[in-house]
Amino acid sequence: MFENVVFPRLHVKHNWVQPTTNSSVANNILDIRSDKEEFQLKESLEKSIRAACHEDGEAAMPDLLLWDEKGLRYFEEVTYAPSYYLTSEEIRLLERHKYHIAEHIPSGSMLVELGSGNLRKIRILLEALDELGREVDYFALDLSYPELQRTLSLVPPGRFRHVRCFGLFGTYDDGREWLKRPEIKSRPKTLLSLGSTLGSFQRAETPAFLSSFCLGFIKNGLVRANEIVGRDVFDLDQWDVKGVWDAENGSHNQYYVPRSDVHLAGNRIPPGKKLLAVKSHKYDAEDRDMLCRKAGLRIVGHQTRITLILSLIAMPSHTTDLLIIGAGPAGLMAACWASHYKMSTRIIDQKSGRTTTGHADGIHSRTLEIFNSFGLLDPVLRQGVRDVEMCYWGPNKDTGQVERRKRLRSQPGNLSQFGQMLFNQGGIEQILLDYLSQEGRIAVEWNTRAETLSIGPENILGNDDFPLAVGVTKTTSENDTVEQAETIHARYMIACDGAHSWTRSLLKVPMEGHSEHSTWGVIDIVPITDFPDIRQSCAIQCPGHGSIMTAPRENRLVRLYIQIKSDKQLEQRVQDYSEDTPRALIEAAERIFLAGDAAHTHSPKAGQGMNVSMQDTYNLVWKLGSVITGAADPIILDTYESERRPVAEELMKMDSVLVHAYEQEAKDAEEVDQVRDDYAGFMSGVKVTYAPNMLVASTEKSGDRALAKNIAVGMRIPSFPVVNQADGSTIPLLDVLPSNGCWRLLVFSGDLRRPGVWERLTSFAESFSQRSHLAHWHQTQKSRARGPRLETLLLHASPRTKINLLDLPQIFHPFDDELGWDYWKTFADDDAYGPNSGKAYAGYGIDRNVGCLVLCRPDQHMAWIGSLDEVAGLDNYFSEFSRQ
């Protein structure tokens, strides 16, 4: 439940212990009280007592009575009670969503917490901010100086690398006035209220909880009142504490109630007369949204669990490292990749939700490999349809009836461990959305439309780190009414906004290519038919009537692609423009990138659109992540266009040839079969090879091609089963290369039993550790909390049982003080573990006597190949773009 605690407002002068300045903690506490003299609570207390004795209606005690040092400790004890689920639930939610929350807090900002307590909760967020490298000043506001000293001692100077911690000694009102100071007002800031009061217990549970709460925390207010007055005015045995639910105002109120007549300063307070101690307002989701709208604030995320809502409220202007426009497959893939980097990311889409019907349906081998690298393959395999065979049907010249002419595998079986699947685009989007929702990674902002775009450092306080200013509007899903507007200031932007890209149009990026005057209709049905191949992909040709393609779908659906040849008017309306690609994929000072259908439009006949679109952003975002987090120079971003534009051009070429083949009335469909065979590697995605560039070493900078005869730099590395040295389990090599932003150096040592091989491996390990760039990339980045940027994996060619893991150089079994040895960095190419094992060296064309080094980028494409003696060349490779 979203709660706001409101105490009775009384005008009092402050009286508090003057802070000392003889410690580092004390030096970090700012006294912001409006009156530095002693608090004059006595006068306010006496006014409250007179009001209780003489006035009708509700009287209130001063709110500051509750929040002395003892009262704060009482309340802290309450939060540790097992029955007080709110704090433990809030901590659990903060642990789960800390990075998502932290992403909305930009570097250079102030983080002000209203009522800091003992930092149990805020420390979770501070640690996440520090891991993200956010330069943030945290201010803990509290009205107990001793408590500020105690809590700030838990985060002394030097505790964090990027976060500085300060105390604000004063009340909420003091804090509000302090925030208005000119030197404070100009700074970006985030206000936090992570506290909670009474939980929403069941009626049967409430009395026991309230009794413990009231006897300690609430009654301490009367003890404090006696201290202020200087005598025992309030006899605690004569007073009860009563909790009342105010349904009309939606608040839970706590009162002091005398059991019998009480005489205070000669005045009588009758039994049952209520003196308000504290009022806790409860807000449901509707109330919360209304309050934020009225305040001009925007809710950027919330998590509901039973009756608890964790809300993060931010101001109408925001900075973000990466803005993604469009939450289709390309945009969602970009967000999934971005979630693995310590950077802030926002993704917006003008639609109200994901795709529900139609659109793409083919998922090829490389896309399945990518999904597997994110741990997302299982839902695709469970829900999708395996596309194993392709059947070709054509007319029998004697009977005039169509008949099956040929049945072939959909793709060659040696391209990948995965074949191809058929699954609707909406299902793919849901899998990616579910992944993003895990641990609060990134939330899609639906019903949010980009309206304006300006480029230049003047857009945000003269800071050219965020040169892109994108004006967006949030609309209601019911009637498209604008609810609010904001400006998003971004470092980089990816336009995944479809074939009719708003971004591409705004930037006036011309499209190149020509249109294919080919018209096809698409329909999804559940057919009732005796057609024998209805659950297989088919190409059916019928002279004079055009062609039909079928594709089986999930839930007994079948998609039909029907060539339209007779309706000229319809042809004019739905012509298939299949050979268009932008002149440039990178625009606006190399800050804006086009991806997916915004970068290439084509026909759906080869099932390429969704695959190539997701592979575009899979190629791009790890590069952006490396630049934004400071690991690599921005020059590497040029490789996005040099690598993906040729893919788009090849796609246009293949699409044109395939469309032509489908529309021919050739006998036995030889032409279609030939085209699919010629382009099998490209269509599957696994044979896409990037040309030499800064991230793909040229022949001169890479080693001897003979070291690995069957592979080449620029390719995605093929996968063969390997055997884990520690436990003997067999695993495909690609499964140990997950998509988490890490580079991998695969060390093929050869057979360690043969002369000189062990010595060569030991020499490599020593040389590796002495190279500056390699050592920098390989060291564990404590601020990232996700291991090193460069991981070394050993694949030896010896019988597994002949090698002792801990005898190997420690680089292949690093030790962690908390977790011990790492058992997942050494593997054997041993044929004793099944019919498919022991084939890696032969498959890669690597000599077991010589071995080699293979460097894989975070996207599993090979970047450099060399011998174990060429460590200097590998170090030079990283030196060209590394930022140390």
How would you portray this structure in words?
With 884 residues, this protein is α/β, with parallel strands linked by helices. It has four domains: 25-213, Vaccinia Virus protein VP39 (Rossmann fold, 3-Layer(aba) Sandwich); 217-281, no CATH class; 319-509 and 516-565 and 583-662, FAD/NAD(P)-binding domain; 715-880, Glutaredoxin (3-Layer(aba) Sandwich). Residues 1-23, 197-215, 303-317, 458-463, 572-579 and 781-787 have low confidence and may be disordered. It is globular and about 115 Å long. Helix 11 (329-338) packs parallel to helix 14 (425-437) and helix 18 (638-663) runs antiparallel to helix 19 (670-678). A hairpin with a 4-residue loop joins strand 8 (239-246) and strand 9. The relative contact order is 0.08. The strands form ten sheets. Strands 15, 16, 22, 23, 24, 25, 32 and 33 form an eight-stranded mixed β-sheet that branches. The protein starts with a strand and ends in a 5-residue tail after the last helix. It contains 24 helices and 42 strands.
